Amino acid sequence: AAAPDLAGRRVVVSAGGTREAIDPVRFLGNHSSGKQGYALARTAAARGADVTLVAANVSLPDPAGVRVVPVGSAVELAEAVEAERRGADAVVMSAAVADFRPVRSVSSKIKKSGTAPEPIALVENPDILAGLVASRDAEAPGQTIVGFAAETDDVVANGRAKLERKGCDLLVVNQVGGGRAFGTEDNQAVVLGADGSATDIPTGPKDDLADRVWDLVVERLA
Ligand code: PMT
Questions:
Q1: Region labeled Phosphopantothenate--cysteine ligase — which residues (predicted)?
Q2: Which value does ipTM take for this structure?
């Protein structure tokens, strides 16, 4: 059994991929299956944490002993995470969040006509992770905030720039593209710390990667 080193701790994990409605039948989305986020929730619960899992469009069974809050869009995910983060010791944002959403979601299905369809105008979604960092002192002093980054190239350089932009404590940078990370059973990452640290996590099951991330969170909470 796992060491109960998260006993007495409350953590919030986001998982899955947001969907931004274009019309009642279509959306802008991404390939996240939720497996990495569910692994984070499952392993935190096994280590004794009180876990809330905010799940965007995931079709996996609820992990045992975890409270699951289902959401659809980035705005819904933002509202759920902002409510749940109060009083939590750590928040881990492993969800793949759409950076943009259609300005308008039309209420009836867009029909195929003889002419080219109207371009879909987009507006930026809130940056949830940056918002959690900005409101931490007021809402959750001392909370550890962990982001994920999906990068296709220059993984460490792009990750370091993203860590600085978002201001989180740890950024788990996984390489995507070429069939990696999205929907797979295994994953691999380098975890960058705001203190300049870099921890390599070799390829292995998503639960193993999740456990290594919690090890780093536990170190910070100590
Ligand atoms: O679900 P799986 O199939 O197991 O795949 C796992 C995964 C590849 C989706 C996961 O490991 C992962 O990398 N998740 C983050 C993907 C992502 O959206 O990365 P990003 O570089 O676009 O965003 C960086 C961080 O900012 C993320 O923590 C994201 O949750 C957050 N973000 C992004 C946009 C936004 N508007 N608000 C945010 O909070």
A1: 11-222
A2: 0.98
